[in-house]
Amino acid sequence: MAEEGSAISLDPAIAARLIVSRFPELSGEKITPLPAEGTDNHIFRIGAHLCARFPKVPWAVATARREAAVLPRFSASPVAVPGVYGIGDPGGEYPHHWSVLSWLPGEPLGAARLADPERAARELAAFFGFLRAQPVDADFRYGAENNWRGGPLALRAEAFDAALARLPNVDAGWAQRLWSAAVEQRAPGAQAWLHGDVHPGNILTVDGSISGIIDWGICGVGDAACDLLSAWAVFDAPARSVFRAALGASDEEWLRGAGWALSMAVIYLPYAYENGLRSDMSERMLARLKEEFG
């Protein structure tokens, strides 16, 4: 779920030329641009098993190298994650790093339905538990390169207030009360790995079951409550309760997670409305938050 930013254009012919130049062994593969559904990357299929990702908004230009650096650490994840094929360097035709990753089979959850939401809630909790159990690396502590995902919620206050003022159809009093309660929660004593953006567009499914987690460009080390945004992005109340219990989230952590979900939706929605982008997931998140904390 992206923040605001001006798009970086990329002609498909240029992308294909860059891919073949950097990886000449792929010259015989068909290179196909995918529909521009995501807000962070231009994505190109390379044959049946690979894809190239070119950041397409300024704030995301560091994501290719970050993603390539962290993914090998999580290859033993209980849910499949992409493998790293290689990195492309900046050049005259495209001025930022880009990556080639393995292509995971499956359909994004945003276009599919879970066959058993409560089982999926336990599986997603196990995935986050796996991330939290991995040794942390201070080089990937939250910061500008991962859009401060996992940092103190208060860092998002200015953007939250400005975006909320652009949403006349949102109950601002309720949103400010929930936001204030979330920001006031005590920060965790220990930091952990977090994905930072697990929502239906980044969850792959096969036959209604979670099969993969993609888009690791803002993965980092910080307050893992950031990943609890998934509770309201993915699940209705019954499965959300199962998710919380399986993860063992305390009241403080749950409220911080609600703050992340709230700020992600509020900050994204004006950008979506003003640029003709899909807004249904963020609207659904707000509705679920209002139901639980209203």
Blueprint of the fold:
Blueprint: H1 12-22, E1 31-33, E2 41-46, E3 50-55, H2 63-70, E4 84-88, E5 98-102, E6 107-108, H3 117-133, H4 157-164, H5 172-183, E7 192-194, E8 203-206, E9 209-213, E10 220-222, H6 229-234, H7 237-247, H8 251-275, H9 280-293
Antiparallel strand pairs: 1-2, 2-3, 3-5, 4-5, 6-8, 7-10, 8-9
Helix pairs in contact: 3-7, 4-8, 5-8, 8-9
Short description:
With about 290 residues, the protein is α+β, with helices and mostly antiparallel strands. Helix content is about 40%, strand content about 15%.
Portion in helices: 25-40%
Alpha-beta classification: alpha+beta
Oligomeric state, counting identical vs distinct chains:
single chain
Biggest sheet strand line-up: 1-2-3-5-4
Q: Can you write the helix and strand succession as a string?
A: HEEEHEEEHHHEEEEHHHH
Query: Main sheet?
Result: 5 strands, antiparallel
Rg measurement, Å? 19 Å
Low-pLDDT runs: none
| DSSP, total strands | 10
Give the overall form.
globular
Our count of helices gives 9
Please state roughly what percent of the residues sit in beta strands, choosing from under 5%, 5-15%, 15-25%, 25-35%, 35-45% or over 45%: 5-15%
